[in-house]
Amino acid sequence: MIFSANDRMSVAAVTLSAMKGELPPTLRYLAGNQSGVISRAQALRTGLTVDMIKFRLRSDRWRPIHPGVYATFTGAPSRRARLWAAVLSAGTGAVLSYQTAAELQGLTDKPDNSIHVTVPRQRHVAAIEGISLHRSGRAVEATEIRSYPPRTRVEETVLDLTQTAKTFDDVCGWVTRAIARELTVAATGGDHSVLEFRYHRDVERAHGLPESVRQVAFTTRDGRRGRRDRVYSEYGVVIELDGRLAHPAENRRQDKSRDNAAAAAGEQTLRYGWDQVKWEPCATAAEVARVRRLHGWDGRPRPCSPGCPVGAE
What we know:
Elements: H1 5-20, H2 25-33, E1 37-39, H3 40-45, H4 50-58, E2 63-66, E3 69-71, H5 79-90, E4 95-96, H6 98-105, E5 115-120, E6 131-136, H7 154-164, H8 168-180, H9 194-204, E7 213-219, E8 225-232, E9 237-241, H10 252-264, E10 268-272, H11 274-279, H12 281-294
Parallel strand pairs: 5-6, 9-10
Antiparallel strand pairs: 1-3, 2-3, 4-5, 7-8, 8-9
């Protein structure tokens, strides 16, 4: 198990508090590993009696977070403590899942208001405030090995999230985000963002443009390495796709450096965002065709529908 510096400080504080309360060694260990949170069942299994638990609650040494789940420290529970409390309250076989697993795995940067927990399908768990319960026939198989607190594997998390996504973009977004952030080795045709998928489908394929090479590695003159989203290598044309997931505002300076490096290598860069690819794919295809022609392409794109501006090309 690997702890961050903050986690180690938290564990140390929890362990010290537990020692002052003269907890059995096994319970001290559990409290330290579970961000200071334990369940009633754990306390009883490690040697405490019902009266001992009641005394700690009455004296405010322990505080209930959920029924049968207690904080063994004072002060507000941390986010991790609340996650442990949710898992413990759901009982045997429970794992963090959906948006909550995504939060821990780096799939999303913003915690969901509700904590999502999946339990084995055969178990009945009463509703718990602040927790969204899910049931699965393969909750055990889906659990990430040696995860603390327990959570579903990245691939399982992505699959769960795609099943509840409201739009196609959301579905593709979860999959491609996992790949772009190098959280899984699975691939979806080499697309590293929803925008790349749409470019391939709505700009290239829909208009008969020869397919570009995807995610092409390059090295700048000063030794920096990177990847170009799309390259028509025969014609020296580079396509960079500025999607919201892969190209936040703070990376714009890096984008300029990439474009300059391409120019220094004799390549011309075209950069497109959501508006050009999602809402104006025909105009984008026409522009790409014109630039390719300037670089020696003698092919002809095809219009995707009546009135498509590519027809004029």
